[in-house]
What does this fold into?
Amino acid sequence: MLRLVPTILLPIVSLTPALAQGPNAGLPPLPLDEDTYVFDTAEAGRVRVVVVTRELENPWSLAFLPDGAMLVTERPGRLRILRDGVLDPEPIAGLTDVYTGGGGGLLEVALDPGFAENERIYWTYTKELPDDDHTAALARGRLQGTTLVDVEEIFEARTGVGGPPAGAPILFGPDGMLYMGVGGANDDIAQRTDNHQGKILRLTGDGEPGPDNPFIGQAAHLPEIFTYGHRNMLGLALHPETGAVWENENGPQGGDEVNVLEPGANYGWPIVSFGREYAGPRVSERTFAEGMVGPVVVWVPSIAASGMTFYTGDAFPEWQGNLLVGGLQFGRIPGTGQLHRIVFNENWEEIRREALLMELRQRIRNVEQGPDGRVYLVTDEDDGAVLRIEPE
Amino acid sequence: MLRLVPTILLPIVSLTPALAQGPNAGLPPLPLDEDTYVFDTAEAGRVRVVVVTRELENPWSLAFLPDGAMLVTERPGRLRILRDGVLDPEPIAGLTDVYTGGGGGLLEVALDPGFAENERIYWTYTKELPDDDHTAALARGRLQGTTLVDVEEIFEARTGVGGPPAGAPILFGPDGMLYMGVGGANDDIAQRTDNHQGKILRLTGDGEPGPDNPFIGQAAHLPEIFTYGHRNMLGLALHPETGAVWENENGPQGGDEVNVLEPGANYGWPIVSFGREYAGPRVSERTFAEGMVGPVVVWVPSIAASGMTFYTGDAFPEWQGNLLVGGLQFGRIPGTGQLHRIVFNENWEEIRREALLMELRQRIRNVEQGPDGRVYLVTDEDDGAVLRIEPE
It folds into this structure.
């Protein structure tokens, strides 16, 4: 929990005439008008939040280039670049077409581990299919200045007919493989391995199944699948010590989870869940079951867990080894986004959790550690921002 | 989530010299120096929080007299009275002796349903026993002006040897019976019915077992027990429609619960739990089990759920039917108390949850609806307050 300091107070929102708020109205919007905000934290003293830019439209993901520049995706289908904290007014040229209806759009961006040599970046996005269907797709290209060349779609997820998968996080593992989550599994499609929805996939840099994937050679299962039984994944993070890939996913109402991925494992959705359906009934009477792997972190109620990263920098020594997880909203109430900091013991079991930045009322969509050890966020808002957290 | 308005801004806490905060240091304390605070809420517009008094020492419980005066317990063993919002400088005379070591003290206060005729009030407290043992006890007396007469201890809980039970909430049900929780069951003592720890008891106004209690006449079970398998209960509330008694209890790290009490039922602690031990490992791989009743509301992480009440007043029509639950701290981080508002569907299943008042950084210990339909809180702080929430 943090606190505002008077000199940088959040502006008053006009509430005249009196709001006639219906159910689930949420908190009134709060523009990020100040350049900096200062908060108390529980273990890192006071921190300053700097608004690096507020000129983005629903930014979704960010990635740092080796030279310190920052790539940011905008859900409406633009890839942007910031150099020295200044947003280039022109989007990167040459991106794939992106379907932007129904909450879909340009989603994640990640650098090839060999970027310094091959200039290659990867991105995921919503793709329109015939018959009003949609899916998640993966593309790559080489970034030359502000232009993408050699652009090619290298993978298209096989999903059920329905709305577009809301999340498609990607991450290169220490094994050089590209892990990709395909979300949007609101029903038991997540338990069937003849499709990619509600699965974490493990792909080569060419978009092919990892050659040693757990279901390779088993006809009933798609070869790209690494894990299954997920619901709607919005974050992947590499564990700094074990090298394991950690994943998070949204429950419906409660039951957001962080999981540690193990090849071929079933994470249980919707057979087991800590959450409730939006209408109220429990998803399941069970939260664990034989043959299914349980989560290491759970939220009840939900924070709409989003991007996440392990903090390993020097700017906040007190936070080293902590998992930072963005949240779009708390308890199904709009206007209540926050950043959670999760502290673990030596066995990587949770021992406490701090909620940060809720005073800003922003949908915290992604969190990354910068090359400077500071923490960078993007906010999924119409007037979306890049925020930087640094010691005061 | 709420927001401060500049004119009533919280004061700056001195942070010079720089804080050297260790693990779990918590947020710096924040005195309630202003007379009022105004916040946005998600569904009730803006609300004003009025500091009725800030001159209490660790207030724990409050109860309204028919004439509108308010009784407040202080954990150090004093019963106080406020009339027209003014704290009588003299405590009520004639209270029982109270053991105040180790977090114990004077705990809850409740009026006899026949108070208007019999002037009777009931209170719970920590009682010292031989051999450095302690327990929870129940007493009653008649309140005449500012003096208690005919004071008598009418029940003493049979607990295991150990620290004093941290909670002992009491509530008169629509059946005229007095429900009393005896907490502090950190181990499997809660599953054994030869003691009162981790149990909800059902007593007559004389402190005797309810004559139709579920274990009456069964020699292996104590006759006062109504339900068992609880951990550390801090709140009881009467459901405004069903007349059922709802109870809440603290998990260790995660796993705070609200339960609906059914005679003779087992609520599962520590066989099932949504929480983790303080050191990190899960309490159990199971959250539900055959023959045990599961919670209707869960918190992961914990808020240290405390007093609670169903809101039924006219001051906040948007909150009618909601459950208001105080929280002492969030995620095991000191300085993060808050008030949660839980919204249910027509089957009394949760559909959303709002966190309120966290900017005040107070340990919200109890919440009651006043006869004026406004919401009253006490804060478990050295400089403890009575707060009133009203429309702006």
Remarks:
- DSSP finds one helix and 25 strands in chain A.
- Chain A has one domain: 2-391.
- Residues 2-391 of chain A form a domain with the Neuraminidase fold (CATH 2.120.10.30).
- The helical segments of chain A are 115-118.
